[in-house]
């Protein structure tokens, strides 16, 4: 589970560094969302595969990174934009 959290934090920081504008969400929100999304996605994939909830498998790690990437993109590109 720690690997999922670390991957989420890294992806959150990376998303913040790659796309930073004055009206973007706070860095804390971006990093926390990245960590929570990665941990949840990794855990759900492990449950789907029948593995232990905290097991680190290639499928669970890849799914956690993909889900985190998509959610951070939606946060900064769609949900946070004000009309």
TrEMBL record:
Instruction: Tell me where the transmembrane regions lie.
Output: 31-49, 61-80
Q: Does the keyword Transmembrane helix apply?
A: yes
Q: Which UniProt keywords apply?
A: Membrane, Transmembrane, Transmembrane helix
What's the protein here called?
GlsB/YeaQ/YmgE family stress response membrane protein
């Amino acid at each position: 589970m720690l690997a999922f959290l670390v991957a989420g934090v890294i992806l959150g920081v990376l998303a913040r560094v790659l796309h930073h504008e004055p009206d973007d969400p706070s860095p804390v929100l971006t990093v926390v969302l990245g960590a929570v999304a990665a941990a949840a996605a990794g855990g759900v994939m492990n449950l789907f595969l029948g593995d232990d909830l905290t097991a680190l498998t290639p499928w669970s790690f890849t799914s956690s990174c993909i889900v985190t990437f998509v959610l951070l993109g939606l946060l900064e590109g769609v949900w946070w934009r004000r009309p």
